[in-house]
Write a structure and sequence with these properties.
The structure holds 3 protein chains of 3 kinds. Chain A is an all-alpha fold. Helix content of chain A is about 65%, strand content about 0%. Chain A has 12 helices and 2 strands, in the order αααββααααααααα. The chains are: A mainly alpha, B mainly alpha, C alpha+beta.
């Protein structure tokens, strides 16, 4: 099996997994919301309502496609396409598990291990806002435009704090920007220098503040409550996708859930050791290598699902921010804390070595 | 040569998108073509094995500055009826400055020699570590000067924002 | 002047540093919601599982028949008089020869209509009825598409001979 074929298979698989997880996130969202509110949620389509996403998808495809007369038709179609493409692009640099080995050759479970991995993530995530802005403007609707404006200002404000919190992590991994290196660094060494559990040297134990900042910014970048101002139903009637219908609306909603999935994966990689889990070295001695790889993939997805659940859990707990509060939090609170955190980390590394 | 082919495609794309920026009637389309132009330039950076520059180019220009630009253009009233009538003086000034720009470009083009396209040798000078090394050793003074400039701009913005509070 | 000692002075004290972080408040909120995740659910799967009504529940009316399947109603009009919403109208008719197996008394209601949109389900018709003819049951009034369809005639109100409506619970309430 050539490496190209393997990568092609991986890309197709990732595409399908992203879409599948996005589809079932909609179901999970409704179920979690229901359970947190003492209800049981959708349970009619199939056992426990498991076919609900398929029913929703069919509904989306069959709905009438409406393009407003006064809208800019080309941009109106471009908006959701750009949004979907950018969200799907991020998953290319995430390592999903330990490399597989077939016949002496190693196959990394990562589409591209580029040496600017985390910058690539930040760059592509910042492009996602174009989909929202173009779609919101092209709708020729006040609410859509307001949603688009909110989205863009929110994205720009929170990207800075997000980047700053990542800098602290980069300082700890000897300045490597590759996500694969960041994950590998968390699988080696002792926690705090003396707790000797293999695969447990996670960044979150050193950088809880950076983790918190990154988490908050991830909520904001994925337009999730408490930062869902761009699409707040109660004030903006859906915000940037007010005028959208049928599968174009579906692409926006889907893209949002893929965003959530990818954000969870990145949080897992940067702060929770990615595919590393306690006892990974011990398991490597008693099980064949490929077995451990598969377990590591499962662990990675376990972490991702936990964070997706966290996203939903927070959504159904905390109400929406007001716009000025959002800006204050981003610029006056998160930014200074992130900068101070970077300085403290740098000082600690210079003083105590590693 | 596949890399040469990619170069020609990217070059054509960047020139075309740059032309579209100028010739689009709708400012929103201009902005979008400018974003496409930035992307093709980032592609050129990658062709030169300068991945760090490419991604920073995308983050800073396509990701932040163009978002702000689009943000501003979106808020303009783009109806043709409300377009203000430009006085003759403005048109003349625009013509003169455009002509001067053309002269400068022509002069600089006259003195350059067209060389053969050569695929650049594999270098690692565009990698993060190397860029950082160069920035903090060879170009330390310009780098620090730029940061001072940015700090001044930031403080200015804060002062302007805080003005109303007494 | 203080009337009772239950009154409380409302104050808005300055928030402490910990409170200004908002994080403890957010975590306690998250704790509350996660508790609900494991709580017993209040949902009933409606068409399969139905909630039991109270014995005094006043739902759709029924016009009763006696044991031999004859209609009890004699069209005396007391229900219509007692109805505060004026939802009941009826036409009386005399029983003909050969109709003894249909109507219990010599007079019967040829037309009996209740406007279900006017009805306030107070149950006064039931109390006014001297013949045990009308009862409010625990059945829910079906939904219709037009207003006219909510005027229920005898076809909707009189119980079917082979499908009797049990009102023993309500009879017990009033048999003091």
């Amino acid at each position: 099996m050539s490496i190209i074929l393997f990568k092609a298979i991986l890309v197709v698989l990732l595409f399908l997994i992203s879409l599948g997880i996005a589809a079932y996130s909609t179901y999970a969202e409704r179920k979690v919301a229901a359970f947190l509110q003492d209800r049981i949620g959708p349970d009619r389509a199939g056992p426990f309502g498991l076919l609900q996403p398929i029913a929703d998808g069919v509904k989306m495809f069959l709905k009438e496609e409406i393009i407003p007369t006064m809208s800019d038709k080309f941009l109106f179609i471009l908006g959701p396409s750009v949004f979907m493409v950018t969200t799907l692009m991020v998953s290319a640099v995430i390592p999903w598990g330990m490399p597989l080995e077939f016949g002496g050759e190693t196959y990394a479970l990562q589409v591209a291990d580029i040496n600017i991995g985390i910058l690539y993530v930040l760059g592509v995530v910042s492009l996602g806002v174009y989909g929202i802005m173009i779609g919101g403007w092209a709708s020729n609707n006040k609410y859509a435009l307001l949603g688009a404006i909110r989205a863009s200002s929110q994205m720009i404000s929170y990207e800075l704090a997000m980047g700053m919190s990542v800098v602290a992590i980069l300082l700890m991994t000897n300045g490597s920007l590759s996500i694969n290196n960041i994950v590998e660094a968390q699988g080696t060494g002792k926690l705090y220098g003396f707790i000797n559990v293999s695969g447990m040297n996670w960044n979150v134990f050193y950088q809880p503040v950076a983790f918190l900042i990154f988490l908050i910014c991830a909520f904001a970048e994925a337009n999730r409550t408490p930062f869902d101002l761009p699409e707040s139903e109660s004030e903006l009637i859906g915000g940037f996708h007010t005028e959208y219908s049928s599968m174009k609306l579906g692409l926006y909603l889907f893209g949002e859930y893929i965003n959530m999935f990818i954000s969870s994966a990145i949080i897992a990689c940067l702060f929770f050791g990615g595919y590393n889990f306690p006892g990974i070295d011990y398991l490597g001695t008693i099980l064949p290598h490929n077995m451990v790889s598969i377990i590591s993939v499962l662990v990675m997805f376990g972490k991702i699902f936990f964070f997706i659940f966290l996203f939903m859990w927070v959504r159904w707990t905390i109400p929406r921010f007001r716009y000025d509060q959002l800006m204050r939090l981003g610029w006056q609170i998160l930014m200074p804390i992130a900068i101070v955190n970077v300085l403290l980390t740098a000082a600690a590394i210079t003083l105590f070595g590693n | 040569m596949s890399s040469q082919l990619i170069f020609f495609i990217l070059a054509a794309l960047s020139i075309m998108s740059a032309l579209f920026v100028v010739f689009s009637k709708n400012p929103i389309y201009s902005v979008i073509w400018l974003i496409v132009c930035f992307f093709s330039i980032a592609g050129h950076y990658i062709m030169l094995n300068a991945q760090f520059l490419a991604i920073v180019h995308i983050i800073v220009y396509a990701g932040a500055i163009m978002v702000l630009m689009l943000f501003t253009v979106m808020l303009l009233n783009l109806n043709k009826a409300t377009e203000p009538h430009k006085p003759l003086l403005y048109k003349l000034a625009a013509m003169v400055s455009g002509g001067l720009m053309l002269l400068v470009l022509l002069a600089s083009m006259r003195s350059t020699q067209l060389g053969e396209y050569a695929s650049p040798a594999y270098t690692e000078s565009g990698f993060v570590q190397n860029v950082g090394m160069v920035l903090f050793t060879e170009f330390l003074l310009p780098f620090e000067m730029t940061s001072v400039l940015f700090i001044a701009a930031m403080i200015g913005a804060v002062v302007l924002a805080k003005k109303e509070v007494h | 002047m203080q009337l009772t000692n239950r009154s409380k002075v409302v104050t808005q004290p300055e928030m402490t540093w910990v409170e200004k972080l908002y994080l403890p408040a957010i975590f306690s909120g998250l704790q509350i919601t996660i508790k609900h995740l494991f709580r017993k659910k209040a949902t009933l799967k409606y068409p399969e599982v139905k909630k039991e009504f109270a014995s005094v529940y006043r739902g759709m009316h029924v016009l009763k028949r006696d044991e031999q399947g004859r209609e009890n109603c004699t069209a005396c009009g007391l229900c219509a008089v007692s109805c505060p919403a004026e939802a009941i109208t009826m036409d009386a008719a005399e029983r003909k020869k050969g109709e003894e197996h249909l109507y219990r008394e010599e007079k019967y209601a040829a037309k009996y209509e209740i406007n279900m949109l006017r009805c306030i389900y107070c149950g006064l018709c039931e109390e006014a009825c001297p013949k045990d003819a009308i009862y409010l049951t625990d059945r829910i009034v079906p939904s219709e598409y037009t207003r006219g369809e909510f005027v229920f005639g005898k076809d909707m109100l009189v119980e079917k001979i082979d499908d009797r409506v049990d009102v023993s619970k309500r009879k017990k309430e009033y048999s003091i």
